[in-house]
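Two entries, shown back to back:
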Amino acid sequence: MVAGERCQLRQDGRVHSLVLCNVAKEDAGVYTCLSPNDQMQFDVSVRELQVKFLRGLSDVRARQGETVVLWCELCKARGDVVWLKDGRPLAPDTRREVRVQGRERSLVLSRVGPEDAGEYCCESNDDRTLATLTVQVPRVVEIIAELHSLTVLEGDDATFKCMVSPEDVAVAWQLNGQPVVPSERLLVAKSGLCHSLTIRRCQPADAATVTANAEGLLSTARLSVQGEREGDEGTDPHGQPRGRTLTPCPHLVPAEAQVLFVRKLRDVVAEEEQDACLEVEVSHEAAEVQWLKQGVLLQPSGKHQLQESGRRRTLTIRSVSPSDRGTYRCESLHDRTQAKLSVER
């Protein structure tokens, strides 16, 4: 043995010592002390220190597109760990980097998206630590169905409707640029994504520009009111009773044309990596619907397949994982239905 940084040779009178510093597993073995006339052997065993976590992972909330660092600290510098997401081992790639610095172990996630949200685990042979990553998706406000101009007879009600996503958008109404104050004649209502303003018993003076302000997005339409003609006795020039609309309003939909759900969604339990299918039946074949998860509009993709067959509307979620579980909703302008998807491992 030669004296060095980890090996010290000491002598104090007749006592000779060999000191091994910061021993490692490879230092185990038989050591022999030799003199010209004698020798003595020492059997050294090294018990490996368990790899425990001094500091565990912490939950993280991040915005979509940001870089996230999940880190923890071991009880010693040497120690192998494995990173997992939702119970599955993670391999480094262009967006995932595993780092080792002294006793620290870290996982760097670049440009995070909704698919990165979930439960992360750093695991050694002796210990583990868990944390949850939540990815906040930017709020996207969209006017799905615009307002349409109306022409009504004096004394009729006029109802303006628009459809706005997501469901919690605050819609403010204006008449000729002035805020609408709800009253007996001005009725403001909301049902799911549908927002409406009803002006009751319209008079010619009520003719105005109607605006729906959805958190900065505007939809505008025009209200025209036709007065009664002299000599009319309860009917219009076409012989129809007064109070009927002269110009058909796209929003005043007859009951038979409303998009209603004949068969609603049901809760689904799917095994991990299997496909999950959510299905509804609507009241007529030309019906338009949209699908949402946790209030976020879903677009067709390799993950989400939207299909139409007659009156059936289907959402298929391919190769489900724990991050796909949650509440799914199917909506039309007039009705909606929702169900819960559970994923079993």
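entry 2 starts here
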Amino acid sequence: MMSQEVITLLMSRSHRFSWQPGDGARHATADERPHRGRPVGTRISTLCGTQVLSDESVEAWLWVTCPRCNIEAHKLAGIPMPGAADELH
């Protein structure tokens, strides 16, 4: 379960990335996100280093999260990956 602090951070958009489904996975991107979202098929650069075409379908938001984007997003947000605390000791 996420702590209230983590939920608040994720909801506040105080970090420099957003999540965007594209090409079969949910990716994180530092590209500017328009207030109403990106048009379907917009090319975005991702935190994993690839470029994908955006998808806004309901199903797309349920796609698997890109593991490399997830790691980079956690770094940018300053939130350790689950299980990472064990590695620090």
